[in-house]
Amino acid sequence: MKVLGITGGVGCGKSKVLTYLAEHYNAHICQLDEVAKELQKKGTSCYNKIIEEFGEKILRTDGELDRYKLGEIVFSDKEKRLKLNEIVHPEVKNWVKNDISQKEKENIPFYVIEAALLPGAGYEDICNEFWYIYTQESIRRKRLKESRGYSDEKITNMIDSQASEEVYKKICHVVIDNSGNFEDTMKQIGEML
Fold it and tell me: What distance in Å separates the CA atoms of residue 32 and residue 13, rounded to the nearest whole number?
């Protein structure tokens, strides 16, 4: 089984690439954000550590994490973002290792790990290759406004909080340019696989 790490900034079109890989290459998709959300549900050790660090002001009325409030805190304060990552990342990584072992037994040909913050997150020993899904910033901004209704300020904060294009390109083995039409993207993926 080949393990690919797919990364790229917010709004670069990773979701569409992942859907394509699942549908056309029988890849199992593991989105680290989704795994992290599951591991941060009320009552988990991860949840308890987050509350201990950030306080109850980040809770919804039902006691679950208010991801919007937590996001506002960590996207505007690098130290707090690093602290949250120190709590969440080790638990997510352990879960992923166990899931890879399970999928290997099921003869899955490709296991794809996706995360915007994959570079430097400690998956170098897990992934055979890292792929950077690149998209011009102006296109990313347009997509985020149209699909998610984000403000310019929120988009700027999110982009600024993520790794730079240079970091992605330095760490990743493959760059897929998703700035044009998706047929071009599919062709690039086919050449790499």
Answer: 16
Separation of alpha carbons 85 and 88, rounded Å? 5
Neighbours of 179 (CB within 10 A): 15
Q: Are 176 and 185 in contact (CB under 8 A)?
A: yes
CA angle 185–187–188, rounded 5-degree value: 65
Q: Kind and range of the H or E element at 28? A: strand 27-31
Q: Summarize pLDDT for 100-123 with one digit per residue, the tens.
A: 999 999 999 999 999 876 766 788
Which residues on adjacent β-strands are paired with residue 4?
A: 112, 129
Give the pLDDT mean for 36-56: 95
Token pair listed for 13: 């079109």
CB under 8 A, 24+ apart: contacts of 141-150 = 141/11, 143/11, 143/13, 144/10, 144/11
Strands 27-31 and 129-134: unpaired
Residue 162 reports pLDDT greater than 90: no
Supply the pTM of this predicted model.
0.82
End-to-end C-alpha distance for the chain, whole angstroms: 13
Helix or strand holding residue 138 (H, E): helix 137-148
